[in-house]
Amino acid sequence: MSAYEAIILTIITASTPLLLAAIGELVVERSGVLNLGIEGMMVMGAVCGFAAAHVSGSAWLGVIAAVMGGVAMSLLFALLTQTLITNQVATGLAITLLGLGLSGLIGSDFVGLPGVKLSNVSIPWLTELPYVGRLVFGQDPLVYVSIVLTAGVAYGLKYTRWGLIIRAVGQSHSSAHALGYRVIAVRYACIAFGGATSGLAGAYLSLVYTPQWIENMTAGRGWIALALGVFSTWLPGRLAAGAYLFGGVWILGLYAQAMGLGIPSQLLSSLPYVATILALVVISTNRRLSVINTPASLGQGFVPDR
Amino acid sequence: MKKLLTAAAGIALASVLSMSAVAADKLKVGFIYIGPPGDHGWTYQHDQGRQAIDAHLGAQVETVFVENVPEGPDAERTITRLARQGAGLIFTTSFGYMDPTLKVAAKFPDVKFEHATGYKRADNVSTYSSRFYEGRYVIGQIAAKTSKSGVAGYIGSFPIPEVVRGINSFLLGAQSVNPDFKVKVIWANSWFDPGREADAAKVLISQGADIITQHTDSTAAVQVAQEQGVHAFGQASDMEAFAPNALLTSIIDNWADYYVARTQAVLDGTWVSTDTFGGMDDNMVNMGPFVNMPADVKAMAEATTAAITAGELHPFAGPVYKQDGSLAAAEGEVVDLGTLLGMDWYVQGVDDKL
């Protein structure tokens, strides 16, 4: 494996969990809901995925369990914020706390056990192609899932009827309601989708990135995913670019350290954040676009007037 | 934000842990852990020490612990809680518990406190730490013998003296075998982030390192080494299960003897505030089994361990040159304890700058 392949592979591994978690949250926020519980859903995905994979021996069952774990947490969030109209910010934080604590409890018997790694895709001939084979045809399956999801969300939000409904609900839930759309149901579905992708992101950590269960193994990635969504002005293409930029600068920072260039490590550690904010600020200078894309009802609970 | 959250999670956990009532005649010994006892690293070893107290003094002592206590104000609350509930001796097992421990100790003069790796003491607060760097000298020698590329990758947590001392000791050990040996350093800027530690290991390997060693708390880097077919060393605890083919040995922190002795001292009424900096000689730093290496390397490692234990070999015995070429300790001298404790310079051969 050549050096550039190694670098790109590491960057993709570092970026994929961020992209997975962020793409779901993008849909959630487009529907007008702010779910700060990504970290909690992600860590629950990680523990459920690890536990199921360890018990069954199948990484794919782990992935399914991770999705279910994420969805379960998100439905709890949906029940509280959509049906019981609790404050979304506070509820999201509570979901994160619950997820971190509960995952530790579920995972206490799984700490230090060998994990099952989701194996990389291998296609005869194609994966062996020089230079591009490993990169294009030899990734782990969840990388392809993240790319397909991003493309699907981008297309779906822009060109499909469903996308239009989600955006309408996010822009003005009262108008959408008046038009006869079931605001709460749409938001439930979006929140569950966000839970599913956060769960996948968790599975990526415990089944691909570092195949083991360690308490609090998400280590703040949910918050980065949340920030990426906001800075990308809710556009999937920018979101993907942001996630890869973040992962790329992070990994290149590690390379810079390993090469002994003498740049302070604290500066290198902060660079991904600085670079991502700068890049997204620059591409967001089109204010008209930002205003149009910001879901006007973001974070507001909806109580239908019967 | 994240700090706030982990803090809140800590409160939640701490309040979930209910403490049973203690029979009045038993000494209650409390422990505050930074992580879960199942981390197979730092906290795991402290919990082994706690279990040793149970095993040796179980008839006269009851132990309790609170895990995942964040450093900072929550620590103070949790320590106070243990003191209120009648603990007579409390071990606070992370550097960041230093000020909270002293604050609580001032309020509870009859309770004895033991703080790990700190430097502030009081009449009822002792400190204790280990000369982990002795173990790093041994693994440095093994690395130099085992490595084909002559380059080791070192994953550091934060550039603090304890970690820098480890890097220097590792390299001095390696250079005693191969004077041209190099070490590349990546700072994770975190004690615990499995993803970052794994990334750092991958980067170091792709930069030519065929030995991975770490001063961070998770087992992620060892696993990467296993996957990519290079060698690695375990940190704080025996990590062999995570890398059966890659692991050469582990540096193991052994707190058990110290914990039992200190608890016995409280029972006997002989406890006084002290500062302990234990190493191989008093069994506070142990080496794990030497595996996956030829017999001659194993023999060398065992001999070095024995020499350090006997006090015949000091990892920082001169001549020691700083990175800039100046002399830190001349032939026949040893880098003094004060310099070791505040170490803020690399020795020659480290491919990094501080």
Structural features, described:
The complex is a heterodimer of chains A (306) and B (354). Chain A has one domain (3-293): ABC transporter involved in vitamin B12 uptake, BtuC (Orthogonal Bundle), CATH 1.10.3470. Chain A is built from 13 helices and no strands. Chain A has helices spanning 3-30, 38-56, 59-83, 88-107, 133-137, 141-159, 161-171, 173-178, 183-209, 221-231, 236-258, 265-283, 287-293. Chain A is globular. Chain B is of the alpha/beta class. Chain B folds into two domains: 2-130, Rossmann fold (3-Layer(aba) Sandwich); 133-252 and 287-351, Response regulator (Rossmann fold). In chain B, 39% of the residues lie in helices and 20% in strands. Chain B has helices spanning 2-16, 42-57, 73-84, 98-107, 132-146, 161-175, 194-206, 220-228, 256-268, 295-310, 337-341; strands spanning 27-32, 61-66, 87-92, 112-116, 125-130, 151-156, 182-187, 211-214, 231-234, 247-253, 275-278, 285-287, 320-321, 327-329, 350-351. A seven-stranded mixed β-sheet of chain B has the order 12-10-9-8-6-7-15, sandwiched between helices. In chain B, helix 4 (98-107) links the parallel strand 3 and strand 4. In chain B, helix 2 crosses helix 9, helix 5 (132-146) runs antiparallel to helix 10 and helix 7 (194-206) runs parallel beside helix 8. Chain B is globular, with a radius of gyration of 21 Å. The relative contact order of chain B is 0.13. Mean pLDDT of chain B is 87; it is low at 1-5 and 10-23. Classes of the chains: A mainly alpha (306), B alpha/beta (354). Chains A and B meet through helix 1, helix 4, helix 11 and helix 12 of A and helix 1, strand 7 and helix 7 of B.
